[in-house]
User: Fold these one by one.
Assistant:
Number 1:
Amino acid sequence: MSFWAYLLHCADRSYYAGHSDNLEQHLHQHQEGLLRGYTYTRRPVELVWAAEFPTRDEAKATELKIKNWSRAKKEALIAGDWERLKKAAIPPSERAQRASTSLGVAPRLRSGIREEGVVAPPPAIVLVRPQLGENIGKAARAMLNFGLTDLRLVAPRDGWPNPDAGPAASGADVVLAQARVFATLAEAVADCTHIYATTVRRRGVTKPVLTPEAAAQAIHGEAGQSALVFGAERSGLESDDVALAHSIVTIPINPDFGSINLAQAVIINAYEWSKHLALAQPPVVDLDPPAPHAEMEDLIGHFVTDLEASGYFFPPDRKKVTLRALRTMLTKTGWSSNDVRMMHGIISILGRPRNRG
């Protein structure tokens, strides 16, 4: 079976990176809006690059690496221009310094991972003896929000698949569809070289204790497959589960109220891991520059003319103080030229005689 990492060019000129074991079907789903994700409101999309891999982990690792690339790097990849791709991988602050040196050693990305070296695959999320299908669905939703899709279930109480998981996942169906079930935790993490047990209790086990942020940094710096292990809703992980892990991850929490649910624990750890990636963010919209002072003076003059005509300045000996307060109010807001023009229009309308007919 083959797996694919791919790049789509969207209608808004952005790029979307993904992976699939059925590229043709996945492309059709993107085109038809059957996947309610990033591409849903950015259709039509066009497949501009794809690469085949023997395992899903390699395809996912490539997808996550490409997601973190700049537009210049993605377009160099699409063009097959390896020299341009190598140059685009160098941070701008280092380009001048490197211009006079050999590029014999592969440049490092901002994450510290070498461009041509081994990239850490995304961690697996392992739920040990989860009780409610609804909570499994919520955990899947938390995972996909931050780019994780490898869900592993150890002896789910109500079996699998569970009809309550789908509605709670709110569209994260790809995570549920790919979820794998194991009889024991040891089987679930058999391919993992780094195992992190999430628990608030040490249980006398002497292991490194990390925050989610520190664990995320460690995962990105490790070449092998990592797993974040979460316990059942009521009791958490048992001592034998924790003993199997290499490190403990503990979320700093209010000592007077240490109640955190399964999905919350998953989303906190997934978010910390995702901070090393370039996930979608709301577009930055620059504010209009402040209007020139002459425009503000015209606006103030317009105000004064209409206010005088309406008898606002009463008693007359308070006019100077009132004008000063008006000027202070209008000049401290940083109005743009558009704001000023709109206010002129409002004043003009308010100053017109009313049609009483």
Note: Residues 202 and 268 are 20 Å apart (CA to CA).
Number 2:
Amino acid sequence: MTLYTHTFDIETLGWDNPIAVGVFDGNKYKDFLKLEEDQDVIWEFLEYVRDNIGPVRLYAHNAAHFDNRFILDCLVRHRQRVSIEGGLGVLRWTDTEITFRDSYQLLRTSLEKACIIFGVEEKLSWDHSSTRPIKDMSLEERRVFRAYLERDCRSLSEVYEKFVFELIKTFDILEPGQTLAQTSLRIFDSFYPLDKIESNLEHETQIRAALYGARNEVYTRYGENLNLYDIRSMYVSCYDTPVPVGKMSFVLPSMDRGIIGRAEVEVPDDMYIPPLPLHHGGQLLFPTGKFGGWWDMEELRYAASLGVKVKLKAQLDGKTAPILKDFGEVVCKLRSSSEGDLARLWKLLGLQLVGKLAQSRSRTGIKHVSTVKDLEGTIPIDKYEEYVEIDRPVKGRLQQHIARVTKPAITMRIRAEARIRHHKLMAQALSKGSLYYCDTDSIYCCATLPTGPDAGDLQEIGKALRAYFVMNKFYGYVTPEGVLKQRSSGFSGLKLSEDQFKELLRGKTLRLPNPSPNLTSPGDIIRGQTVVSSPRFRTIRTPLSQKNRVFDGEVTKPIHLK
């Protein structure tokens, strides 16, 4: 059996000048090379697919951020009808029923790593910085370039098919979703039918008010001789807890029962790691002081056990059951029996379920006017007045589907349970020494903590001779081998030196070029701007506060609310 996964790949001169397109249909490969200045290889490729392959899904890796932008640009220039979904993860050429999809959204790793995971012949090497116009390449250069392009297309096709077959074989599902999150939801549905879980739409306002993210805080800005830990499969390890499955209703408030509660709380000023989350001023805080809100009842009971004063004002209760337990055990078993990037992929598959169950009920997109039934109140976004950006009406089959798969109360319970377990381990670390940093499932401290092989156990992921915590999700540390490791969310590809980390902690501002430029956004392409790259300079400075903590010299303390 074969899926005949169709793949394509676009190669450019620089970042924004397409010079070649390769396409593989699971059997035959063909490429299109730009040999003349006015040649449009993207359109040649599109005409070929339309006339010779027909309605089909074509996959490119990282298409949403690269390949699909050139496809969109070309289709718009040739006055073709398109629609955009998932950011640009799915691009539909409406009149031909051809869709261009991003395989990264399912594989969630680089193609190079995916080849290793699934035993596929590895990518060939090509120095993109030395790419020249094809007409200027020697015959040998051109041969190597074309071989590189072909291998990318063939490798992606084989990797994608192998992963899909692995999912179908392991979980007995008909086919995966477009994304890893959609796939995770389909798998869970095979363990426990989603139709059996109440959506509790009438209480969604209260449920989402009690839905908070994970803890991410800087406690000490600089440290030496640190132990770095994370919690194995933290979210998935919480899948053994009972979650809301029945219809909720208001009950008389009691600390001994209930799923969620509205409360007024008072967190003691001397709590260094306060237990309760709060959305405040656009930030997720874990403050001290007096404040109110909706919380998961288990989290409120845990807070009360630590000395937080809790005064319940209202409460919702209903049936709960540990329905995620079997799914979690299978995913954890897959992860523990795998290594490296494959183990990480199984981890992500389990983790994606929590986010997907809490997806928004609204939908937006860019549509051709001919596909929109009601244009009242919409404004065209392009010069030909053919496209509008709309909030898609959620009704009919789409409404039924979203109601069936959206269960935010489950996500609320799992996230709360994860925060409780995380807090307990953090308190243990603090009791044995200084605490420096935490994120979702990590703890960086000077203490030596017990580790274990099971989901929910701590595992040591490294040591740091020196560590510099600039802000949330932005830090660097030096390993015992003298290697500088960096985490810099939002600054992809930007590498700092240890001296620059020192400068940031002293308050200096850095302005550095980011090696990955911006490409024209999908909305701007629709509006008539061609795909061009613009250099990105990133300004980095140590904030005057940590947003969710306040400075007290080298250490921080919780924000206090009155």
Note: The chain has 15 helices and 29 strands.
Number 3:
Amino acid sequence: MWWSAFVALLVLVPVYGHAAPVAVVNSSFESPATPPDSFIVGAAPTGWTGYGNLNLSDRVIGVVNPNTTSLYVEPVPDGSNIGVTFLQDFSGDEAGMQQTLGATLEVFTHYTLSVEIGNMAVSPPPNDFDFGGFPGYRVELLAGGIVIAEDDNTLLPGEGRFLTSTIQLTVGQTHAQLGQPLGIRLVNLDAAPGVEVNFDDVRVDATALDCPELPVAGCKAASSARGTLSLAADAGDPDRNSAAWIWKGAATDVAELGTPPTTTTYLLCVYDGSGEAVLRLRAPAGGSCDGKDCWKALSSGFRYRDRSGSAGGLGSLQLKTGADGKASIKLKARGSALESPTLPLALTPQAAT
């Protein structure tokens, strides 16, 4: 069934929400305790289990304390130890470590998984191993053992350096893995010369997608007949579900838009005539989409683009500054992850931001 309608009120507000951390056991690999310039391998670090084909010799996981060595240019990101995934055979047979968390996948929640990815430098003799090169990595966010979001080797840390991998996922009203335990998997791809990938400071945050109660003070009104919302739902093919919103209204300058490439998250809230939020779409601050920055600063505002629609189906959001009637917002979303309001809607056509 296809349908389009105006709802009672549209609110798009910068959200400076506080994410709630999800507990990760031994997130910085400090257990087992390890003296500087030494390692413990052959068994998984506390709280973690092995993934893939491992043994007790040339395919191992564990921890290393690189302090007092030249293996890293700067101190490790957190604590003293870092996680080890050491695969010496360069066979393309990936392996690593994983952990099931105590939290479950929830509706209307935005998840962020951040992990420090390390490329151990070549160390001077005497040394039995050549750490030159980088075998590649993958970081996965799981629910019920199923991958729901991942970073598949998008970063290349320099020799002796770390880079931050960040994965973001927005869960709307439905998801195949709702209620399933969350998990993390850290993988050495063993796909290029280089034997080891290090991991550190594993962090998971969950932010509830709560729309504010109406009325919302300080909203900018749309110009007459310049705010439109269209929704489409196809019960037979949810991948064709879509939402589009165009708003043109009161004068807006760039300072009012915040800083979405770094700190300002946008949340679209669609309400029915009774004041109940029936659709939520979140454009998180920062992040990587399709291997590029999700947000781009433009001469007249900002643009968000995510072809994969990982944020609940949101594909694009453009914020444009301008005088009265020239300032505008354009949003498009599509796919089965898109929240679909229940029909019929109680309608009182209005629009505001």
Note: The two ends are 29 Å apart (CA to CA).
Number 4:
Amino acid sequence: MAFLDNSGDIILDAVLTDTGRLRLARGDGSFKITKFAFGDDEINYETYNTQNASGSAYFDLEILQTPIFEAFTNNTSTMKSKLISLTNNNLLYLPVIKLNDIESLAKPTLAAGAADATVFSSGSHIVLVDQDTVSKVYNDILTNDSNRVGIINGTAASSAGRYIRTDQGLDTTEVSPDFILDPELKETQYIIEVDSRFAKIYSRSNTAVLTPSFIDDDLIASYYVTQNTAGELVIDSFTGQTTGNISGQNSKAADEFESILGPRGTRLSFGILASTDLVSSDYLFDTIGTDITRAGSSFAFIDTFIRVTGATTGYRIDIPVRFLKLQN
């Protein structure tokens, strides 16, 4: 990676994505540029200086002089902060995607050392990769279901098991949650990215394992999930207050553990299964994993992230996940 020289003329440096390069290499006419994206990963907007002694023309001088990364093709490292175009110029807040940590089945584990933390607390969701690990953890270590917060059984798809959930909307108390989120800001499609060596994604509503839309050269599987399609991974959030004197429709928002404070868009829910590689072999644990001892038993674990990106706003959240396997 290097920086572009932006001290003189403006330079446009563009590269193809992995998908674009694949289609170009086919040579069958399937390559056609239909979409492009801009990002501002390098820019720190806090350097906008309204106190510059030289006047308003110099307020953004430091921003304009910020070194710019040259384009490169690793999709896991670039375009983390995509730019979007909106027709409404009067917006005071932009929506976020937030990990839901209040619904009991969707909570991650507590951070290590926190009050009420269990022996497996790491601040992430923990996926048990095989039946031996499930039996050891459930029968000998965390024998009560109340102690298994954030512990996901990665051996079988279940509509009632623990899972991951994200909520989308304006996370502010300045705008009432009784309002409807502007349709221009509502996410109806999400991209879930996960290392295909570690995990598969499934729908909780019908326990169907999803087929990746694309697996790139880094073995990152991308799943494109859309509202109102089979599996119901994406559904509308409920409007209304979640605390205080609530009743009727508003109580539904509380009952559904909505975590967004203001107007809400959609929520995304999905289950995780351990990959065949993790179940059938210790190779990845031996190569890139770490060994730990808990409650007298030896385990190996691999830490990774599952990335969720909103297709409308480009907002992204990285969700830490730990895959755990019993060694003896």
Note: The chain has a mean pLDDT of 89.
